[in-house]
Amino acid sequence: MAVTGGTVPGEHPSNRFEFNDQGEPVAAPTRTEGASAFSIFAALIGLAAFALAAIAIIVVSVGDDDANVTAGGDSAAAAQAPRVGASLSEFAIALEASVVPPNSIIEVVNNGAIEHDLAVKGTDLATATLPNGGSDMVDLAGLAPGTYDLVCTIPGHEGSGMITQITIDESATAPVSPGESAGGHGHADVTPEEATALDESMMASMMAFPAETEGKGNVPLEPVSIEADGTKVFELEASIIEWEVSPGEIVDAWAYNGQVPGPWIDLEVGDSIRVEFTNNTPLGSDIHWHGITLQNQQDGVAPYTQDIVSSGDSFTYEFTVIEPMVAMYHAHAHSQDSVPNGMFGAITVGDVTLPAGQTVSGFEIPADIEIAQELPMVLNDAGVIGYSLNGKGFPATEPIVADVGDWVMVHYYSEGLQIHPMHLHGFRQLVIAKDGIPLDQPYWVDTLNIAPGERYTVIFQVDQPGVWVFHCHILTHVERTGEMFGMVTAVVANEPT
User: Fold this and answer.
1) Closest CA to 145 of 172, 126, 121, 164
2) How confident is the prediction for the chain on average, in pLDDT?
């Protein structure tokens, strides 16, 4: 993707275009007042939402008496049931005992700073989502003797350590052994020996960076052919693959072309493209071109713009990119599963307008500024990929290696389910575009908050040598007891040779 200096465009081009039957952009007609199919549809949706809300109120009212016990037997039996406590924190499940008699009740308290829940994996037994200080119970009545996994079902939390086991044993008459905690408490009662071990473990986890793992995402996608009229033909295949998120952590990822994130598609304004999509995942799929201005029938939202692409079937997308853009592509059907598990990728179109020669908050941007490297940084926090940057979790994240004096451009893409304040040590980031649209007023930050679906473009100059940490500043997304993990990388700044 080329980068150039120049003035910031005043009007966003997508406001000026529609498309004819051949997919060519034409000037948009003047809009007229009056009711439309869309407004009628919206009104019907509103009525339906009102009806559903009324039903929900009735259901909640009826079920309030049993709200404190998620599942199990009658209230009299529950009152006599053996009890075991469970404490939730970042990111840990601490049980008072890991072996309990049949028909026990788990009394759950969230002592963490963020929301958690507790579920018996493979069953429908679960607490409500609990805020800090919230409590609930899980009734194990009816579960056969055996060992069960207890997990937090909040996206990304199980993978961050919130999993433990409980055993139901007919010979147990009371809690008989201490449960195991993954940590995350205040460590007020830690011994000097335990503190030393935690310090050493944390330092060792940090010194493991950068660790090698199999697989690399964001590999630039080359067209398989260019037709006589200049149309660029690309191929994308969705499938489930083995993906090494961090050293030794191999998951079944949903991927495009065998990588997470999927291949980076870099285009020029005016390119006509054809994307031949083959779906080899178990579920039907489609591709939504998030942020691209195109015809409705190419938007990739089954069943509104196309039929769903069943497992083993293919679909061809054809459109022309008409404006500079930082966009992304991902599945829309079954996206709650496929996207957090890896089916996402970056698209860049055309030139990024730099604020060359401008003075921003007293700092003059060089008139001859040149970008030494440009890279996508795709944020995720859920599914099997979990807390990650470009499909990898620390210490397997890839460092940004640059020379002192270099200007670096980063395109943030949030494909996760949470907000992430991205903090760069040592260098301030100049925010120059939002969702690919250049800002009339660029601004400096050291921490930039990025919400799901958003894209930001920042530049920064490497002006001091050293290893400078680059991470999400929600600290439980980057550290857990005894180790650094997740959404952390670094800028490695070298003196020019």
Assistant:
1) 172
2) 85
Q: The tokens of 138 are what? A: 């899980």
- Is residue 155 within 8 A of residue 116, CB to CB? The reply is no
pTM (2 d.p.): 0.72
In sequence order, what DSSP letters do the residues of 81-98 get, joined into one string? Answer: S-EEEEEEETTEEEES-S
C-alpha 298/C-alpha 273 separation (Å) is 12
Nearest to 413 by CA among 349, 325, 478, 327: 327
Joined together, the tokens standing for residue 125 give 């037994």
Measured CA to CA, the distance from residue 463 to residue 403 in angstroms comes to 8
In the sheet where 163-168 sits, what is the strand order? 99-100, 163-168, 146-151, 119-120
Residue 417 in contact with residue 382, Cβ under 8 Å? yes
**Tens digit of pLDDT for each residue in 331-388?**
999 998 899 999 999 999 998 899 999 999 999 999 999 999 999 999 999 888 999 9
109-162 pLDDT, tens digit each: 998 878 899 999 999 999 999 988 889 999 999 899 999 999 999 887 887 788
Contacts 24+ apart (CB under 8 A), 71-75: 71/124, 71/125, 71/138, 71/139, 71/141, 71/142, 72/103, 72/105, 72/139, 72/140, 72/141, 72/142, 73/103, 73/139, 73/141, 73/142
C-alpha 162 chain-centroid distance: 18
List, in sequence order, every residue forming a beta bridge with 273; answer none if it has no partner.
232, 319
Give the residue among 123, 177, 167, 119 at the shortest CA–CA distance from 145. Answer: 167
Tokens of 96: 């008072």
Contact 202, 385 (CB under 8 A): no
Rounded Cα distance between 341 and 336, Å, is 9
Helices (H), 65-222: 75-80, 192-207
What percentage of the chain carries pLDDT values higher than 70?
A: 81
Q: How far apart are CA 331 and CA 284, in angstroms?
A: 10
Three-class HEC string of 200-239: HHHHHHHHCCCCCCCCCCCCECCCCEECCCCCEEEEEEEE
Structure tokens at 191: 């011994």
One-letter amino acid at 443 equals Y
Amino acid at 128: A
The pLDDT tens digits of the residues spanning 318-347 come to 999 999 999 999 999 999 889 999 999 999
Six token digits for residue 443:
């601004």
Which residues 6+ apart lie within 8 Å of 414 measured at CB?
Answer: 379, 420, 450, 451, 452, 453, 454, 455
